[in-house]
Amino acid sequence: MNFIYKIPITNSTIPSFKILFFGFFINNFSVFPLPPIKTQQKTVAYLDQISSKIEQIKTLQSKKMQSLKELKASLLDKAFRGELL
Questions:
Q1: What ranges do the domains of the chain cover?
Q2: Of 37, 36, 35, 17, which Cα lies nearest the Cα of 27?
Q3: How far apart are CA 10 and CA 69, in angstroms?
Q4: Are 30 and 18 in contact (CB under 8 A)?
Q5: pTM (whole model) above 0.70
Q6: Rounded CA gap, 36 and 11, in Å?
């Protein structure tokens, strides 16, 4: 069976492991400390907020693009009918 194995790598200033993952070795996997859970939660909340704003901007941009396409079609229609003065 394939499992994940951590094999310590020596002769390094940073604790590292060679990972055997489903039969493949993953090299240069370094262990590093994670920030406290409160900091992680604040970061996630901030990123969620930014993500929400990005989605709002995408929706607005899509609506504006549709309006511009409609305006262009209207202007071209008037131009071909000779109604632009």
A1: 1-32, 34-85
A2: 17
A3: 62
A4: no
A5: no
A6: 29
Count of C-beta atoms within a 10 Å radius of residue 6: 13
Q: Which bin fits 81, alpha (ψ -120 to 50), beta or left (φ > 0)?
A: alpha
Q: How far is CA 46 from CA 20, 40, 41, 42, 64, in A?
A: 35, 10, 9, 6, 27
Q: Count how many residues are written for the chain.
A: 85
pLDDT tens for 32-71 read 567 888 998 999 999 999 999 999 999 999 999 999 999 9
Going by their DSSP bridges, the two strands 24-30 and 4-9 should be labelled as unpaired
